[in-house]
Amino acid sequence: MEFYTLIENRETIRVYDSEKEIPREVLTRILNAGRLAPSASNRQPWTFVLVASESKLEQVRATYQREWFQKAPYIIVVVGDKTKSWVRPKDGYNSIETDLAIAMDHMILAAENEGVGACWVIAFDYEMLAKAIGLQENEVIYSMAAMGYPPKGFQKKGNKKRRPLQEVEREI
Q: Is the pTM of this model over 0.85?
C-alpha cells in the first residue's frame, strides 16, 4: 500500500473475526516493524509481548473490561526498560515513552498494511497486566494493541476527523 494512503485509511478497529488466525509470518512482520523503529541514541529499550495463547489472552483481556476487547484474538503489549533508554543529561528526561510510542505506531501501521485491524489501548489495570505478562524489574508497560482480521463484510467508517493542517502547522 502507498504510505500516505495507508495513513489516511488507517482506522481503529474494534471488531475481529475470531475464526481467522493471523499467520505467524504476518505477526512477525508486524513485530519486526516495531523492532525497526528509531529510538533515542539507538538504545532500543523495548520488548514486544505477543499474547496468543488462550490462557494468557484470558488473563490479559481481564485487564481491560470492554466487550470488544474480550474477543481480540491477539494482543501485543509494549514493554520498556527505563534503565536501557536514553536520558537527557541536562534535565533527566527519560526517552522511554517516546521510544515505545514510535515502536507501537510502527506496528499499528504495519498491521494496517497487512490488512490486520488494530486498536491501541492504554486504559488498562496496570498491576493486573504486569502480573499477567510477568513484568520484570526495571520494566514498564507502555501500551497494548488488540489485533485481528476484521470480519467478512466489515466496512471502515471512513469518517476520520482531524483538525485542518492550517490549525496545527506553525511556520516560524
A: yes
